[in-house]
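During the no-cost extension, the postdoctoral fellow (Dr. R.K.) reprocessed legacy sequence entries with the updated structure-token encoder. One reprocessed record is reproduced below for audit purposes.
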Amino acid sequence: MADTLEFNEIYQEVKGSMNDGRLRLSRQGVIFKNSKTGKVDNIQASELAEGVWRRVALGHGLKLLTKNGHVYKYDGFRESEFDKLSDFFKAHYCLELAEKDLCVKGWNWGTVRFGGQLLSFDIGEQPVFEIPLSNVSQCTTGKNEVTLEFHQNDDAEVSLMEVRFYVPPTQEDGVDPVEAFAQNVLSKADVIQATGDAICIFRELQCLTPRGRYDIRIYPTFLHLHGKTFDYKIPYTTVLRLFLLPHKDQRQMFFVISLDPPIKQGQTRYHFLILLFSKDEDISLTLNMNEEEVEKRFEGRLTKNMSGSLYEMVSRVMKALVNRKITVPGNFQGHSGAQCITCSYKASSGLLYPLERGFIYVHKPPVHIRFDEISFVNFARGTTTTRSFDFEIETKQGTQYTFSSIEREEYGKLFDFVNAKKLNIKNRGLKEGMKQSYDEYADSDEDQHDAYLERMKEEGKIREENANDSSDGSGEETDSSFNPGEEDDDVAEEFDSNASASSSSGDGDSDREDKKPAKKAKIVKDRKPRKKQPESKKGKDPNAPKRPMSAYMLWLNASREKIKSDHPGISITDLSKKAGELWKAMSKEKKEEWDRKAEDARRDYEKAMKEYSVGSKADSHRGERSKKKKKKQEKQVKGKGDKKGTTSKSSSSKSPAKGMSDSFKSKEFVSSDESSSAESKKEDSEDEGAASPAPSSEDSASGSD
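Re-encoded structure tokens follow.
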């Protein structure tokens, strides 16, 4: 016979609701793990007193009673599994698995029996229904009547709130059956009564959820939150987990208490109690117990007199009373050195803490996600900006959590953490429609190649190069666009004049001619200083040596065709991912070979750059001298052409083709060109040291015209 039995999709009945999970029976005992909360119920084999097999609504069920009176119910078994369970109980627990069916006669008159934590209403020998007394919140008595009220269950669609029992009077003297009934119920019921003094009191603590300032009174079995508006009594049995989380500013601490079932106020449910402390706040605490009681109850975990930081005292007391470990952040460190990541969830900004066994987000609304309930995670590009990304988590139940606006610098740290925890990663890439499942993954190494991160870096380099090229090109155009001796610049200036005239399309030619000299003077004034600026900003030279590639890029270029042939039809994204996997799996010796090639390429590049820089300086000097010489020649030729053009001004106005050497010139351009020629000749007189009387007469003639 097997030493263990495991059953999936088993339902545990807790306070009227059915919680699904997994049930495991072993030699040591019975273990049930709740799929929703992760809470584990462990029943030792030595504590089992009775096992009952019966037919229920969900097939067949198993009821286990312990020696201390607790009752555990598990439903969802098949009828064929009875023999297997019965043999297992006989062999390992030395118990007979009894078969008892519920009475379905529909009678409402019977006998009430109290057994441990259970109230059973029986008709004859068959039970009709059973009530766990721990579900009772209040018990009141009347004449021949007892009323039981129950804790409300938020998970159940329909909750039983009240049951009334009619107790007939008896002839026995000195015994009131109603009071006896009520005392049996109250002795086992979960009725919170603040009797006696509190062990200690923490006053005016800042609480984020529920919001406000509360006095926390610590009682032996429950926690009492007393505020100005609301009071909450929290039994320690409802505390699921404790968290102590440092704030990102390193000056505050979060203390988070996870509750199941939650505390409620009206229609609002609080699954988490979040307290915020300052690290600088200290306290001296004295417990309202003598030293012997403290030592006997807490076994050295607490002392009668304690002092220290306020958050340390609260967490220490809660840990001792609840008897649960305090979860703190693991070895994760973000880009800024903090143990959390700033992000947004829904409409609020908060902090996401990667833990050793899950994620927790504080504070509004607080969310705790365990690793064992995560189906996959996804790194998605931010919808509004490329400076951030989104981190999506989808659980096995289909619930999706999206933590947005995470800084791009946090990507590498978070990716390595998720990969090291062996969580499934599903990356959608750059486009919304692309969905790729990366279910197969390996451990995170220091030298691992991340295709997504590499792609983001390459895109950033391309954007920077394009931005530099565009700015360099635009600067070169503006510097070289104003050359009065070249025909291309005449066309550009004519285009500028047309653009200015188009704004006033309804005006006449005279208006345009009146406005044009002012516009032209403005253009010359703005562009002339640019001509004298040193030409330090130049475009990218196509003859310049190309930068060397990294070892990975050299290997990728050499292996790209082989990868395509091995995987026909592979997309670019899949090819990058596959290349990253191959590069990661490559041995250290082969990588060193490509590293040597990359180093050789780098040395060749440095050598070529030295030769290129020396040659480019010599070319620039020769080019400047030839350019100055060419300008002088063009100015001399233009001066002679202007002289001929002014003598035949009337003929040139009738036939513009004869007044121009090769290109068409409009009327506006001729008048403006003459004014610009005067300035150019003035420059010639300054540069060459010789004055020409002919151009000055031409200028006076053009002015009179």
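The chain is about 35% helix and 30% strand. Confidence is low (pLDDT under 50) at residues 428-452, 473-537, 647-663, 665-705. The remaining legacy entries will be reprocessed before the final report is submitted.
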